[in-house]
Amino acid sequence: MAKANVVIVGAGPGGLIAGMLLARNGFDVRIFEKNALPGGRNSHLDVGDFKFDVGPTFLMMKFVLDDIFRAVGRKSEDYLEFVRLDPMYRLHFADSMTVDVFEDKDKMKAEIERHFPGQSAGLDTFMVKERRRFLKLFKCLIRDYSTPWSMLNKNILGALPTFNIMTTLYDKLGDYFKPERMRIWFTFQSKYLGMSPWKCPAIFTMIPYVEHKYGIFHTKGGLSEISAAMAKVVGELGGRIDYNTKVKTVQVEKGAAVGVELESGEKVRADAVFVNADFGYAATSLFPQGAIRKWTRERLLSKNYSVSTFMLYLGLDKVYDLPFHNILFAKDYVKNITDLEKGIFPEGNASFYVRNASKFDEKVAPPGMSNIYVLLPVANQKYPQDWKALAPRLRDWTLSQMEERLGMKDLRQHIVAEKVIVLPDWETQYNVFIGATFNLGHNLRQMLYWRPHNKFEEVKNCYIVGGGTHPGSGLPTIYESGVISADMLCKKYGTSCAAGINKVPDD
After folding, report:
1. How many helices (H) and strands (E) does the chain have?
2. Taking the model in full, what pTM does it have?
3. Which listed residue, of 54, 111, 235, 294, carries a Cα 20 to 30 Å from 90's Cα?
4. Helix/strand/coil for 428
5. What domain count does the chain have?
């Protein structure tokens, strides 16, 4: 059977992964990207002489990326320079407690004993029990859920007892660690999934598990280099990427995608269309009126979404002695999380994240200078705020906290370049639906079959990749969405492109 002509809307990581795999397997691949660079929110922006990742800064489950490169006859290390972080990150509490979080088990146990004597044995139990669970759950994440019957597959049925449906992430961590603060060490990531640790499903213990098991990596030049590398491979394999080319609409005839119309008016026919735009934006803006019946704007707005983010990208003429990743907790962390869920602006009581890349990566700033990336979670556009008035105030408060809590006493006088992204910018500049930068939330009603399907249920010959579809947001799962969707099309043409991918490393 002849292979298909495939159009991919967007050169984000999910679309690039799909493009790599399809091009390798003989499909004619053409990707349209509205920006001048690949990556979407996994691209970079230049502020003066400083280079910043727009979005993701944590690379977990590197083995998934390595497998994908191998599947297309490449080695990731030939394209990217990886740095394994040690410590992975530092946690800063408002009462001055700091915790370095290590991949190395002995170092991590020593850090636990430093703060909570007698609790380190819980890490051993955590790693043993959560590995068993992860191996079962991972098999569930790497397949499609396009029909109700797909939920009856043997992997789901075998893993069902491990789902702990009635247990929260915070409560589950209590099986291993009794101190409240220790549980917070292992659960803070949940707010990026759109949930508090007190509501997040227990299955997401897989996130701290994979951090501690497989480590966290950086790529020299920033994680945007991953997208650049994948775009290069697409070209090497015969695919084409058209930059500065915006897709106006997906063309639909008799309920099936038949190509795209570009903003220029040009129409490009295709046998299959992959949509790598933000899902909420795509469903409400990229399809002809009447083509989408289920995922209407009203229904989308009724769903649970992640937080948005207030961003500071700071270029400094100084380098500070700080770890690579730093998470600063609000004085009242529970109230901060509760306020985010209610859409209350985090005035004076916010948690935020600071990346200090330049101490470890000479490619992101001039010599003797540093690139400081700051992310502060805020409620999404369901709860509109006057950002023109709020942005300067929030910037000032955040800088004050950095000066006080990170020892960056002279921070302001060393800022030589700066860019701010506020919530509305995500919607207007990056086409992120309601500014929810981590996409649809990951509560159980919005996972697996109940998430937008990889093979789009509304339009035939159309596939969805990215954080809005299964398996979800975060780089490794976005990569998986590209693998799952590409393999579904490959199988339609009598082949497979997922062989050798998702081999979990042995102990």
Report:
1. 15, 19
2. 0.95
3. 54
4. helix
5. 3
